[in-house]
Design brief:
alpha+beta; 3 domains; eight-stranded mixed sheet; five-stranded mixed sheet; 18% strand
Length: 730
């Protein structure tokens, strides 16, 4: 029966059309990188590693529809030709169904093989070095499961409802839910990431991808078994068919087990840090509401004297084992201190002044009870790093790349410490093939067996400690007297030097030094390439990161898309300028929170000023002034600008709206106010006073909006968006 079904299937044109669709989608996927976000990927160099995921994803999208359509038409062909009764009277219906499902499974496997073959041919034609490992991993994780799941889904739906219309509707609904959902557990067609990083690898992505596929397999497998239970038997109605098959028991039990397993797996999701304040991805979660001012000193006025952190990484298993020792000034009235900690980490024990201490760990929060006069807390912990979002990783540990941003809370962060400088010392130990960019001064580098240990030291004001590791090449140079270290992956250094990234960094640092004053730290400025799993950039202490989309760009050329390439390059430079600006505004001097007054607004303004310096004022206005005004006006003209309208929406929706409003204030309105101030005072006076404010604020480490306005010689109440831009053309 199987052989006959296979021969008959191979004669059908529909299967051939599906194969052609998958082949065309695969070619499109290989080159889809250049057609995505112009701010990030437009001018990025294409490699086989990057394009492997694009090919697999595109083939999965086309293949799901092809397999689904072919499966439904193949399974229903007897009913559509009105020969169902004749066929079922002469053959075992279940056996016939399983034969057809087996044929369709072979078809899905053939489409996957076609995807691999077409991708390899396309790589050769495009003169790309083939990365067969990345391609097979992408196909096995993305394309093959998606096609098999499509087959299970469509077969189950058709058997369950005995209706093509219902099956097509179900497939279409679940197909679009998968494409549009932000929950990786529902992304059964494609995945939660678009590309494999060209230097970080993909080992940190495989487990959540496989877990999402497992959930879908349990769900659609259960649907398939329920469809078998409900399948019409020849001479029986739907009710009698269901009753007859359930009498066997085993099939029903297995279907129930798969259903329960699907629900349990979905609820037990192990990869997302759902307790992180970054989870909402709104400015509200980061800063509070526009009316709130973050409270200082929640821990009762405790001052940090020093912090020691020692961490050992097991990159093969994505684990960390660490110890952190906090030396505090004794505070008699303080009974406990709380820390933010990544929810993937387990606290093994806590010592208070050398003796076992009492503590509680719940939902990413560690609370330690302090006896009177206690001054030393040692926390020993370990585990894996969870991220608040798998679309943008705040922290991960991979074989060839380690990204531990301070926001991942890999190092427990005390809440509400007093604003005072303290000494940071620490070490990070990892496999010898990795190189780490560490905060502060690299005190010592040890090598023992197959491990290397980096010792670092620095004076800081907050526990904002980040560590970045990778298979890096390094370049050292001077920028306006500032020692700069560039950390770029081995495969991307040539492209970085081709774009002359060192000269860009030199020019940015020189511009800020001239405009504001000397670099605020006596340690090297480290500029680090990170993976595209955390897009954009970041700045903390003396570390500046930018995603590989900045470091692996094509050389500018005279082609038909020269203007687009120039735009992409300016965005890359703007990103570097913004993050480096945070070394002055954010790490050097902090803007005391009072929206729209913010470090982000100052950094955006400084980066835009640099773009005007390096390119032109017209191009800077095209990237800053006009889109910023548009964003601010959009918020002011919004229906939800009215508090009564805002009160009618759900709390989560209200947080999102308030977050967007606050984002516009911090990132767009603030730099616009500074532009208005510059125009009113005159450029020479404005920059002279801005430099003076920065210099005077370095000792305290922060500056308030009131002090800033006074030092700039303007009245705070007159610094308003409406005053500066009331007559600006729409």
């Amino acid at each position: 029966m199987f052989r006959a079904e296979l021969v008959f299937f191979l004669r059908k044109r529909l299967a051939l059309l599906g194969s052609l669709a998958v082949a065309a989608a695969t070619v499109f996927g290989v080159f889809s990188l250049s057609g995505t976000d112009p701010f990030s990927f437009r001018d990025m160099r294409l490699t086989s590693t990057l394009s492997a995921m694009g090919a697999a994803r595109s083939a999965a999208v086309a293949g799901v529809l092809a397999v689904g359509l072919v499966a439904l038409l193949w399974l229903s062909r007897d009913k559509r030709s009105r020969t169902e009764a004749l066929v079922l009277s002469a053959a075992d219906g279940t056996r016939l169904l399983l034969s057809r499902v087996a044929v369709l499974t072979l078809y899905a496997l053939a489409l996957c093989a076609l995807c691999v073959l077409v991708t390899l041919i396309t790589w050769v034609a495009a003169s790309l070095t083939a990365n067969l490992g990345a391609l097979l991993q992408a196909v096995l994780l993305v394309t093959l499961p998606a096609l098999v799941l499509s087959l299970l889904l469509c077969t189950g739906l058709y058997l369950l409802f005995d209706s093509l219309d219902a099956a097509f509707l179900g497939l279409g609904t679940l197909f679009f839910i998968s494409l549009l959902s932000g929950d990786y557990r529902l992304r059964w067609v494609t995945t939660h990431v678009n590309w494999f990083s060209d230097f970080a690898g993909s080992d940190m992505l495989a487990p959540p991808m496989a877990f999402g596929r497992l959930i879908a397999c349990l769900c659609f497998g259960s649907l398939f078994l329920h469809g078998l239970l409900a399948m019409r038997r020849y001479g029986y109605g739907a009710h009698d068919s269901l009753r007859t098959r359930r009498s066997r028991g085993a099939l029903g039990v297995l279907a129930a087990v798969l259903t329960a397993g699907c629900v349990a797996a979905y609820l037990a999701e192990p990869f997302v840090d759902r307790n992180s304040p970054l989870l909402k991805q709104t400015e509200i979660s980061r800063w509070g509401t526009t009316e709130d001012t973050p409270t200082v000193n929640e821990a009762g006025g405790l001052r940090m004297k020093s912090l020691r952190s020692d961490a050992l990484l097991d990159t093969e298993h994505s684990r960390i084992t660490a110890t952190a020792t906090y030396i505090l000034e004794s505070a008699a009235n303080t009974r406990e201190i709380s820390f933010d900690i990544n929810s993937g980490l387990n606290v093994e024990h806590v010592l208070v002044d050398g003796a076992p201490g009492r503590f509680s760990l719940e939902k990413g929060s560690l609370t330690v009870l302090l006896p009177a006069g206690a001054s030393e807390i040692t926390v020993s912990y370990g585990g894996g790093i969870k991220s608040p979002s798998l679309q943008s990783l705040a922290g991960y540990i991979g074989r060839d790349s380690v990204y531990l941003q301070e926001g991942s809370n890999w190092l427990p962060r005390p809440r509400g410490l007093a604003d005072a400088a303290f000494a940071l010392t620490g070490s990070i130990t990892a496999q010898e093939h990795l190189t780490f960019a560490v905060p502060g001064r690299l005190a010592e580098l040890e090598e023992q067996n197959s491990l290397r240990t980096w010792h670092y030291a620095m004076e800081i004001r907050e526990v904002d400690v980040a560590l970045y590791g990778g298979v890096y090449e390094t370049r050292s140079f001077q920028a306006a007297g500032v020692p700069v270290e560039l950390y770029v992956s081995h495969g991307h250094m040539e492209a970085s030097l081709g774009r002359d990234i060192p000269s860009v960094v030199e020019d940015i640092v020189a511009f800020y030094t001239d405009a504001l004053g000397p670099y605020p730290f006596d340690t090297p400025l480290r500029v680090v390439e990170t993976s595209l799993y955390k897009g954009g950039g970041h700045s903390s202490l003396n570390l500046v990161t930018a995603a590989e989309t900045v470091f692996h760009m094509k050389k500018p050329g005279a082609d038909t898309e020269a203007s687009m390439a120039s735009f992409a390059w300016m965005n890359a430079v703007d990103l570097l300028a913004h993050e480096i600006a945070h070394q002055w505004w954010g790490s050097g001097v902090t803007a005391a929170y009072e929206p729209p007054w913010s470090d982000e607004g100052l950094a955006s303004f400084m980066a835009n000023a640099y773009i005007a310096h390096a390119f032109s004022r017209q191009e800077a206005d095209g990237m800053g002034l006009y889109p910023w005004i548009s964003s601010v006006e959009e918020q002011k003209d919004s229906y939800f600008a009215d508090d009564e309208a805002l009160a009618k929406v759900s709390e989560s929706k209200r947080d999102q709206i308030l977050g967007d409003r606050l984002h516009a204030q911090l990132y767009y309105e603030m730099p616009l106010l500074l532009m208005g101030m510059e125009k009113e005072l005159g450029a020479e006076v404005f920059w002279e006073r801005l430099s003076g404010v920065y210099t005077l604020s370095q000792d305290s480490g922060s500056v308030s909006w009131d002090i800033f306005c006074t030092a700039m010689g303007v009245r705070k109440e007159e610094v308003r968006y409406e005053r500066y831009y009331a007559d600006f053309p729409a």
